[in-house]
Design goal:
This protein is of the alpha/beta class. The protein is built from six helices and seven strands; from the N terminus they run ααβαβαββαβαββ. A seven-stranded mixed β-sheet has the order 3-2-1-4-5-7-6.
């Protein structure tokens, strides 16, 4: 029997805003924050967009690092515990993408770490998710309009809250552009 590893598919939201991500990457790398298996960042890096993969999971970062080296991608990994106090970021990013992760104290850092004309793409579960499965803890679920409120001083170019299929889940999304200061 042959067992094949299937690379998880990147988010449609990343593909939908690819032009904006390419433009934002001229201001700095794209940070794939809490990247997990790196599905979204790898999609971008394979298109020539510089990506920094940040996570606390050394095994997943090691797998991503192997792919980066094997495919000679414009990317690097960053081992960081995002929940052990306030992380120090010493560079500005053209964009930050976050999927399926919520640690509210990071909102301030995310906003401060994106260059002028930079972009944030954020998607994670909301309170409606409790009807569909994990997570159930409200600490890990967005409240209604919470993402929009976090980025209300930015230009919101996309916002969605509701149920999506395949698999069925309740999410919130925001794509916001940091306007010139």
């Amino acid at each position: 029997m042959v067992i094949r590893y299937v690379q998880p598919v990147h988010s449609a939201l990343v593909e939908r805003f690819l032009t904006e991500l390419k433009q934002a990457s001229k201001q700095g790398s794209v940070l794939d924050l809490a990247c997990g298996n790196g599905r979204n960042g790898l999609y971008l890096a394979r298109l020539g967009i510089p990506v920094v993969f940040a996570d606390h999971d050394t095994d997943k970062l090691s797998q991503i690092d192997s792919i980066i080296k094997a495919e000679k991608l414009p990317a690097k990994t960053w081992l960081i515990d995002l929940e052990a106090g306030e992380p120090v970021v010493d560079q500005m990013f053209g964009a930050i993408i976050v999927f399926r992760y919520l640690h509210r104290p990071l909102f301030k850092l995310i906003k401060a770490s994106i260059a002028d004309s930079g972009l944030v793409i954020y998607e994670t579960f909301n309170l409606g998710q409790r009807a569909y499965g994990r997570p159930h803890n409200p600490d890990f679920l967005l409240r209604e309009n919470e993402l929009v409120e976090q980025f209300d001083d930015w230009q919101i170019i996309h916002h969605f809250e509701g149920v999506v299929a395949d698999p069925e889940r309740s999410i919130s999304q925001v794509v916001a552009l940091r306007e010139l200061q």
